[in-house]
Recover the amino acids of this structure.
């Protein structure tokens, strides 16, 4: 459990963007793993199984509120144009000397602040290596919507992370 | 979408992909493992309650076995103490007294039975048959009256 707890928690948190819910989902994933303990015990694919389980549980959790965030996805997109998003960067000097760890923290924060409709397909595409078709099937939405939401998610990340000098060149 | 826009999208996709894949794993809360283990133990306890003693967790089996052994020892000790000399005598005397009362009752019943047998032998057969018929009739009249009264009471209750 210690070997995979960070993997499972990261997977859940990046999808649900709520630490308490991610912990609940992680707990559920490990309980399911315990039910299959004999099969997973010495299986090198245990990590992949846990990640997949955590992903499915997270999506099931989000599905309960899907109608809400799907309906308002357009509204969130419209609001972002006027949203003065502020990252936790004190001044330019701090930003200039960002180390990888701090940079990762900023990217992580920007990712979690994305609207659910954009964040979920973005994470599934880039971190779970799912195709557009698989994501559409998983979320029960059209292919066009998946592509649109992923495109908007990337644009939102670019817009937000543009505040960080150094990252700008990577995300232009 | 023109070629520049398409290139821009591809570059952006690659850049976002690179940034996200470089993200390290987030640290899980320290309470996670404890919560999972607690839940597993809770489920095992519930299963044990619903299952037989052989499937109880080892700790619970040891505790229950110790409790039964202690009860057994306490019962043995209690029995020995109860049957010790002073108490034993008074207990046996009590039984003896009760037995004497029963013997008295038995003797009385025996005498009554003998009296009935003597009366049956001495009395006339026709008298005995008439008596039996009267007793039988009285019995059935009582049953009939009792049934009628019960039905009347039920009917009145329904009416009310």
């Amino acid at each position: 459990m210690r070997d995979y707890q960070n993997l499972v928690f990261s997977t859940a948190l990046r999808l649900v963007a709520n630490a308490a819910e991610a912990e609940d989902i992680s707990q559920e994933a490990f309980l399911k793993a315990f039910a299959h303990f004999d099969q997973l015990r010495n299986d090198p694919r245990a990590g992949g199984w846990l990640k997949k389980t955590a992903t499915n549980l997270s999506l099931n959790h989000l599905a309960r509120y899907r109608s809400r965030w799907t309906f308002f996805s357009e509204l969130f997109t419209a609001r972002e144009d006027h949203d003065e998003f502020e990252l936790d960067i004190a001044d330019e000097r701090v930003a200039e000397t960002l180390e990888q760890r701090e940079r990762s923290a900023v990217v992580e924060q920007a990712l979690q602040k994305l609207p659910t409709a954009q964040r979920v397909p973005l994470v599934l595409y880039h971190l779970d290596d799912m195709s557009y078709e698989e994501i559409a099937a998983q979320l029960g939405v059209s292919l066009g919507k998946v592509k649109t939401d992923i495109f908007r998610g990337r644009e939102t990340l670019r817009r937000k992370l543009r505040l960080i000098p150094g990252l700008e060149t990577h995300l232009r | 979408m023109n070629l520049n826009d398409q290139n821009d999208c591809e570059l952006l996709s690659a850049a976002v992909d690179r940034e996200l894949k470089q993200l390290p794993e987030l640290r899980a809360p320290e309470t996670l493992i404890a919560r999972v283990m607690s839940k597993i133990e809770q489920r095992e306890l519930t299963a044990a309650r619903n299952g037989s003693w052989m499937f109880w967790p080892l700790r619970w089996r040891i505790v229950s076995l110790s409790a039964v052994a202690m009860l057994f020892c306490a019962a043995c000790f209690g029995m020995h103490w109860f049957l010790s000399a002073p108490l034993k005598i008074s207990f046996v005397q009590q039984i003896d007294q009760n037995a004497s009362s029963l013997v008295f009752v038995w003797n009385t019943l025996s005498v009554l039975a003998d009296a009935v047998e003597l009366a049956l032998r001495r009395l006339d057969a026709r008298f005995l048959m008439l008596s039996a018929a009267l007793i039988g009739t009285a019995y059935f009249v009582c049953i009939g009256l009792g049934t009628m009264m019960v039905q009347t009471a039920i009917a009145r209750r329904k009416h009310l």
Notes: The CA atoms of residues 59 and 65 of chain B lie 10 Å apart.
